[in-house]
């Protein structure tokens, strides 16, 4: 369902205590929901008042086995293939009043209240991927020999190692700094967007450099560098794309005195 990126479904009230999530027959809400097949609970955001715009969106807790709700096949993703990501299918799914998360019409607030911290937490993923790239490349360039010596002695390879290392360390320091501020109650939206923007894009580049250092072997699935690249790309998309993160940072800076 191409139009179901952030706007989930349509909700209608049946009475004082019951809502129904309506989607046309056999259409699905398609989102990157990790482990959706195994989770007993899902949070879904639905328009309960179409005329109210963003103020008419409500958050619902959807329980496994609820009539009208099911999960479809596991999606065949480019990367992060170890996680079960699937489509959610709603066919006249009836939701009781007590399954509203927060208040009716406050779904955007529920979603946004945790999004800054979600971006910060997710930023640790690219840091781990960059470390994994170095863990693969450093032993390889010590063992792989050309012209009678390890390729790690060549300046071109050393330059790539330096770029990978500085990308890792700067991203790690950025993550730790923002996390420290958040622990102290100083949650800054532009910093949370900035840290995942920076770390995610660096991770993709570091993974590409890792493939380059391994040469032809980097292009073979026997080595993990291809998987690391595919996994890294997700972090430029999930929890708001890189373009959205840049927009948030620019908007927050524009609002400041």
TrEMBL record:
SUPFAM superfamilies: Acyl-CoA dehydrogenase C-terminal domain-like, Acyl-CoA dehydrogenase NM domain-like. Keywords: FAD, Flavoprotein, Oxidoreductase. Its cofactor is FAD. PROSITE patterns: ACYL_COA_DH_2. Residues 37-93 form the Acyl-CoA oxidase/dehydrogenase middle domain. GO terms for molecular function: 3-methylbutanoyl-CoA dehydrogenase activity. GO terms for cellular component: mitochondrion. Belongs to the acyl-CoA dehydrogenase family. This is Acyl-CoA dehydrogenase/oxidase C-terminal domain-containing protein. It comes from Eragrostis curvula.
